[in-house]
Amino acid sequence: MLRKFMLRGRLRKELILKLNLLKPNMLTIKPCLLALALAATSTVSQAATAVSSNDSALSLKNEAVNPKNEAVSQTKSLKAHFSKQFLVGSAINAQQAKRTEQDTDALIITQFNTITPENELKWERIHPKPDAYDFSLSDEYVHYGLANNMFIIGHTLVWHSQTPDWVFENAQGELLTREALLARMKEHIHTVVSRYKGKIKGWDVVNEALNEDGSLRDSKWRQIIGDDFIEKAFTYAHAADPDAKLYYNDYNLYKPEKSAGAAKLIKSLQDKGIPVHGVGLQGHYSLTHPALNELDDALTLFASLGIESMITELDVSVLPFPSEAIQGADISQDLALNKALNPYPDGLPEAQQDALTARYKEIFSVFLTHQDTLTRVTFWGVNDANSWRNNWPMRGRTDYPLLFDRNSEIKPAYRAVMTLTID
């Protein structure tokens, strides 16, 4: 499978070179072999956009990796194994940012070189009232990333969800005018981005603004401001921190219609000279979707725009998906618990474990064929116990979507990913 996609990758690269669609520095051919013999205590190379791990982080490796799995790779970490390909990170929650979860703390520091806040920078948390900001958790999060030399992501500035109703209303509860909402958006973005200028290196400026057919979602942002609310958000974010990388982030971008809509959106920003540096493809996948060719095609499409691609919220559910729900990450879906759709409450059977292992290996094989433009892979959660998949789209289920189990021990899927090399 990897050889197949590598061949397609080379053909695609030649075509893009001829079309001059990508910047020269994005087309550098990388070495064909991953380093598999680094000593456990040596300093490992980080991806180009991240700084080197400090000695204290490296010293924690043996605490987070199960000794019986030492033969998996002498590098003993995802960030080291893929150091020449892309950053590898995780979303972290408030308790993890405050370092109150000892097992996951060691795991985060050992395995990852980039972090994303699960909720701490969303509008409802950081700006809960018109005249009040609460930076307590976001400050903890940023401090954690800086202390561990990580590439810090800000998530997210403009989103239709987890944004209080007051944002769109005046004191009488009436919808704001276009000018008033633009002023409120600008003030929020300036306040938050400026506070972390030079510390948060990349921002998910706009999140989930598209419908499944690629058209613009009819959110309150769009209803009140108009279609240009997206370009305004990017313009305000760039003004607040000209050096920060700015991203558009969405789920189901493997779907041809939605990826085409995202590409059209990004191209329109580029044509107006508005900075947009990358696209985040939320990787909320399953054992059966997306089809690998769809993921490959989407990454190829975004590469043609001359921007970075990132897998921003990776997890692979092993549970059957409710027929009445919509695949993706629409958090408004909240279905009643159905025991028939929660088949593994007491542990994952070997057959499903094997299927998860195979699935992760083939997905990462696709990622590696796009290493010239794929700059980051971020898991949505540190271990299975932390995963939102346990409660979406149905609360109270037991899912197993990540590379580390509920005890923060490595799973067979981790071993499979760590064996991947490039021929």
TrEMBL record:
Reaction(s) this enzyme catalyzes, per UniProt: Endohydrolysis of (1->4)-beta-D-xylosidic linkages in xylans
Keywords: Carbohydrate metabolism, Glycosidase, Hydrolase, Polysaccharide degradation, Signal, Xylan degradation
Leader sequence segment: 1-47
InterPro entries the UniProt entry points to: GH, GH10, GH10_dom
Keyword Membrane: no
Pfam families for this protein: Glyco_hydro_10 (PF00331)
Name by which UniProt lists this protein: Beta-xylanase
Organism: Paraglaciecola mesophila
The organism's taxonomic lineage, starting at the top: Bacteria, Pseudomonadati, Pseudomonadota, Gammaproteobacteria, Alteromonadales
